[in-house]
Amino acid sequence: MRLILASAACLALLGACSNGEKTARYLIDPPATGERVADRLGTAELKDVSLPEYASGGEVSWQTGDGAVRSNTKQLWADDPQRAFTLTLARAISDLSGATVIAEPWPLAEPPRRRLEVRVEKALAQADGLYRLTGRYFVSDEGAGGANQARSFDISVPLADQNPAAIARAQSQAIAQLARQIATLSGPGRSIRTSTAPVPRIDDIFSQPLPPLEGS
Questions:
Q1: Which strands, in side-by-side order, build the sheet including 24-26?
Q2: Count of CB atoms within 10 A of residue 148's CB?
Q3: What radius of gyration, in Å, describes the C-alpha atoms of the chain?
Q4: How would DSSP label each residue in 153-189?
Q5: CATH: 3.30.2000.30, 3.40.50.10610, 3.40.50.12370, 2.130.10.10. Which one for 45-195?
C-alpha cells in the first residue's frame, strides 16, 4: 500500500513539473511608433549584441531591494536573449530609418557598407523602479574618409512594477530608444574618420581580370 501511495505521489509531482502552463515566457517586442528618421547607415551588419551574463540567460532577471539580481525558473524569455535583442534591434533600426541593418552573418551578395557593434554594460530592472540599459555602440566605415562612430548610451524606462511582463515591456521600449539613438548616430562620444584605404578582400582580389601575358 505504501509503495502504491509513494508511486502515486511521484507521478503527481512529475505531472506538476511537466505542466507547461506553469512556465511563463515573455517576448521582446518594441512598439511601432510610426516615426521615421533619415537613413545614416545605408547597409550595415549588426554583430551579435554583447550582454551581461545575468541578461543573457533564459530567465527574466530583476534587482531586489538588497541589491541582488534574482530570477525565477518559471519566468523565462521566449527566445535566446542575445538572439532576440540582436534581431529586434536590427529590425527596429531598419523600420525607423529605412536603412538595411541585418544581424550577422550577412546574407546578401553585396557586402555591407558599415559594421555595427553594440556592447551592453547593464540591462536590468533596477530596485529603484527603472529599467536601465547602458553601454556603448560602434559603427565602422572601412571606406577612405568614412565616419566611424564610438558612442555611449544610458537609457532609463519607468517600470510599472517588478513583474516579468512589465520588465519585458520596459526592455522593449528601451531597445526602441536605443534603435533611434543608433539610427541618428547620437549620444556622447566622437566620430573618427577612416584615413587609410580598406584592405582588399580575398574575393575582390580573385575577381579582378588577370593581366595579359608578355608578348601576347
A1: 24-26, 69-77, 59-63
A2: 16
A3: 24
A4: EEEEEE-S-SSHHHHHHHHHHHHHHHHHHHHTT-SSE
A5: 3.40.50.10610
pTM over 0.70: yes
Helix (H, G, I), strand (E, B) or coil at 67: coil
In this structure, what C-alpha cell is assigned to residue 80?
Answer: 535566446
In sequence order, which residues have a C-beta less than 8 Å from that of residue 190 and are 6 or more positions away?
149, 150, 151
Alpha helix segments (H runs only) across the chain: 2-17, 53-56, 81-97, 164-183, 202-207
Q: Tens digit of pLDDT for each residue in 27-45?
A: 998 888 789 999 999 999 9
Nearest to 150 by CA among 182, 105, 108: 182
